[in-house]
């Protein structure tokens, strides 16, 4: 018997709108967003502390950066397993556990004294943090009505976007009064307390997902929509991570700017991202998620092409637009996912699409930009990524038509 590759029908409007009005749900949506901030910020905090960790443990650059790779491996494995775990544990409990476990691992990291132990702790960090995202999204989906889903996701997406601004500042401030161990200990305690508070007073996410049967899992795996969402998420992650990582090299080596000037421009170009994440949800609810995704891809592609122009002013404008569109597109993508797949299947879709997008966005995309940068120029790499963004508009026709549009 062949598996059905058509996704199950999404819940009806009546079923999807049993949640309270958005104003009433906002405090609880915000609490889930705080969990995401702690989850993402806990992982992001390790990057600005890596030089201090490297010096204290006597590591070289390759060994230090390999720790981040090990964390990514643990994160991917945990994401892939989450759909199966969510059939036995409610999303609310898993989200709270992930936050508490992440905090506990950070507290354990503060006691690390050698490279071998650090490797195990970084893997554990990835495993603990990877449990959050599908559980958090499933919890969020029970708090907001379908018509308000874009706004709810935009509040949730403030977590990583605020982390881009807050984490480097918090790390620098922490290192002024203590060492990296003290910073990780403080962040770990904050994570533990946040998880406990959410487990105590948080709402939503009280229903376990359907167990992923072979037929259901195969159907999700073979559906073109699953891989379309994986690709769209990969484009967003590539813009969020790969472009951000390579831009300092491009500005210094390619544009001839001073490192301090390059870092200042990069930071300034990302200040707008939290506001863009908020606006993205409201626009997706008003204009429609599919149209919003198409517009974001068009503007992202244009901005990346502009970043290949050898002009500091043009590159700066392109950086700003590209950063804003990266934050803007995620609420629309998740709104479409919620429209195309019923809540019981969404964790399965996420456990397939999210690891795939992570490998593409944080692995393949930086490698591609580095290879093109070494062979030709980083500007050529940005132009290639821009063309991929523009080409990604074409498969959007696979998405089912939005009602009333």
Automatic annotation (TrEMBL):
User: Where is it located?
Assistant: Cell membrane
Q: Which Pfam families match?
A: MFS_1
**Which membrane topology term applies here?**
Multi-pass membrane protein
Give the record's keywords alphabetically. Cell membrane, Membrane, Transmembrane, Transmembrane helix
Transmembrane stretches, start-end:
21-41, 67-87, 94-112, 118-140, 183-203, 224-244, 264-284, 293-313, 349-372, 378-399
| Occurrences of domain Major facilitator superfamily (MFS) profile (ranges) | 25-404
Name this protein carries in UniProt: MFS transporter
């Amino acid at each position: 018997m062949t598996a059905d590759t058509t996704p199950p029908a999404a819940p009806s409007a009546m079923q999807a709108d049993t949640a309270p009005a958005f104003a009433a749900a906002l405090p609880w949506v915000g609490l889930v967003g705080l969990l995401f901030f702690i989850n993402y910020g806990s992982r992001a905090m390790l990057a600005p502390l890596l030089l201090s960790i490297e010096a204290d443990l006597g590591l070289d650059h390759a060994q230090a950066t390999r720790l981040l790779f090990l964390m990514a491996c643990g994160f991917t494995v945990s994401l892939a397993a989450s759909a199966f775990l969510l059939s036995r544990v409610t999303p609310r409990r898993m989200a709270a556990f992930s936050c508490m476990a992440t905090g506990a691992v950070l507290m354990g990291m503060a006691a690390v004294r050698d490279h071998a132990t650090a490797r195990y702790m970084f893997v554990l960090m990835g495993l603990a943090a990877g449990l959050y995202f599908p559980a958090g999204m499933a919890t969020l989906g029970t708090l907001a009505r379908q018509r308000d889903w874009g706004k709810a996701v935009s509040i949730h997406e403030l977590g990583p976007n605020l982390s881009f601004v807050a984490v480097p500042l918090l790390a620098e401030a922490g290192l002024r009064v203590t060492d990296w161990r003290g910073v990780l200990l403080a962040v770990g305690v904050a994570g533990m307390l946040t998880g406990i508070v959410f487990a105590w007073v948080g709402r939503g996410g009280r229903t376990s997902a359907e167990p992923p049967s072979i037929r259901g899992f195969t159907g999700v795996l073979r559906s073109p929509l699953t891989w379309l969402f994986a690709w769209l998420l990969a484009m967003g992650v590539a813009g969020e991570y790969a472009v951000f990582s390579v831009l300092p090299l491009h500005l210094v080596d390619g544009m001839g700017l001073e490192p301090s000037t390059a870092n200042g421009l990069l930071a300034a170009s990302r200040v707008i991202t939290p506001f863009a994440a908020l606006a993205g949800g409201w626009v997706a609810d008003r204009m429609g998620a599919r149209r919003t995704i198409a517009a974001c891809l068009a503007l992202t592609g244009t901005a990346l092409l502009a970043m290949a122009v050898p002009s500091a002013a043009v590159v700066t404008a392109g950086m700003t637009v590209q950063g804003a569109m990266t934050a803007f597109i995620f609420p629309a993508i998740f709104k479409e996912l919620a429209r195309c797949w019923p809540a019981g299947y969404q964790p399965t879709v996420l456990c397939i699409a999210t690891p795939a997008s992570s490998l593409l966005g944080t692995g393949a995309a930086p490698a591609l930009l580095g290879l093109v940068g070494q062979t030709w120029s980083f500007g050529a790499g940005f132009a290639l990524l821009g063309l991929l963004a523009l080409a990604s508009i074409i498969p959007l026709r696979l998405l089912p038509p939005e009602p009333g549009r």
